[in-house]
Amino acid sequence: MTFGVAVMLVLRQIEDVTPSTEGLPGAELWTQILGWLAWAGLAGSLASLFIGGAVWGLSHAAGNSMQSSKGKAFALGGAAGAIVTGLAPTIVNELSGAV
Fold this sequence. Notes:
Blueprint: H1 3-13, H2 27-62, H3 65-98
Helix pairs in contact: 2-3
């Protein structure tokens, strides 16, 4: 029996599982911690957008193309971070329902 076949046999035995925090000790604390982490992720993304945009603009105005490209990457990274942080709950909920 191969590993893949063994995994499939085990997965067939698992009944439909719906994630729930019911009866989980400390569930409220973990929910609060996840909220704090999301806030920190969005705050970091906003700071990255501000700092990257400032470096990008000032470096471009000064003719420093190397620092300008670094500022652009920093600003775009902040935008991508904000998108991922904002969509993370939706992504997790969609993927948990896809199984």
